[in-house]
Amino acid sequence: MSEDVEAAVAAAFRQEWGRVVATLIRLTGDWDLAEECAQDAFARALEHWPRDGIPRRPGAWLTTTARNRALDRLRRRATEAAKLQEVALLPHPDAPDDDASSGISDDRLRLIFTCCHPALPLEARVALTLRTLVGLTTAEIARALLVPQPTMAKRLVRAKHKIQNAAIPYRLPPAHLLPERTAAVLAVLYLLFNEGYAATAGADLVRQGLCEEAIRLARTLAELMPDEPEALGLLALMLLHHTRRAARIDDAGDLVTLEEQDRTRWDRSQIDEGVRLLEAALRRGPAPGPYQVQAAIAACHASARTASDTDWAQIAALYGRLAELVPSAVVELNRAVAVAMADGPAAGLELMRGLDASGELAGYHLLPATRADLLRRLDRPTEAAAAYRQALALAATDAERRYLTRRLSETTGND
Q1: Are the CB atoms for 29 and 19 separated by under 8 Å?
Q2: Is pLDDT above 90 for 296?
Q3: Orientation of helix 138-145 relative to helix 122-129, angle to 10°
Q4: What is the secondary structure of 332-364 as a DSSP string?
Q5: Residues of CATH 1.10.1740 domain(s) within the chain?
Q6: What's 367-401 look like in SS3?
Q7: Fold (CATH) for 1-96
Q8: What is the model's pTM?
Q9: Residue 294 pLDDT > 50
Q10: Which whole number is the average pLDDT over 93-98?
């Protein structure tokens, strides 16, 4: 199989997965069937495109193939004649959009709003949207939400069953009801960006395509809801992080820490845009939400011309405010880092005692990695090495493992 075909199928998956799955869900009401038929369509693409060529409109080809597969599956179910009739009415990919009245012109964002039904718990909405419409695996979602994979798998099953058993309509609500789904949509876009910014597993630490798609969707959402300050705050946050994309990985694909990055490679125009968006969000008040606070933290980093210029005291205070808005062990870990940079590593280690005792971050590699770094700065190499080994056993990306291995070697004196 040629690399061109593999690349075309991979690109189609990123761009079309959610659209194909959502179309089948809307008309069959069967989430599992929709995912299975979509997967089959992509598998068939790998078989047919090398022979027949890459279609001019891959999305239409995949939708038609998945539709036909669903039709075949339902034909075998004698008791599901009604569903068969619904699938037969599946619109052609060129059919006009019947949701244009909502004001959402972007297909993917529209589908995310559709999936984030308020009858589901917030975490279930986020997880289900990431799985069904974005195509993240159950393992990726579990790591993003810091829950065990079996727990996440059960949560996804329950959410699907609730939609089916409660006959929740799979359609977009009118524009005036969209705000009740905004929190879940923002959470989905935030986690989508995070998975691209720091992948949960695999060879690549950064997945540029996911970052860019999350930014595109966040920009569309901000245009759709210009008076929603958290939408602006989220877009600002993404831009301020993404500005460092060229400096985060070296030519060998290895991780470059924020402290060591070449700041001349940061995208200054994107920093300026992010700061402008943050200022616009803050003006809309009355009090900054969590995405605006995180964007303010990112702005502190982005505005520092050198690592030593970073206003760590301000960042620590902002993390304190963020912990009040969204109590989280991860936020507390980040606050400990900021305090360590502002007041010394011993102060940061003291804050980490509670995190170690709580067990909330058990299995999260950045907890021992942070402890190792602070111990290294305190010139306690034996303890630092033990913490690096613990982090190394938990790290899931190749780039992070190489970084931790290098730090461990430096700490133990083994080159």
Answers
A1: no
A2: yes
A3: 140
A4: HHHHHHHHHHHH-HHHHHHHHHHHHHH-TTTT-
A5: 1-96
A6: HHHHHHHHHHHCCCHHHHHHHHHHHHHHCCEHHHH
A7: Rna Polymerase Sigma Factor; Chain: A (1.10.1740)
A8: 0.77
A9: yes
A10: 46
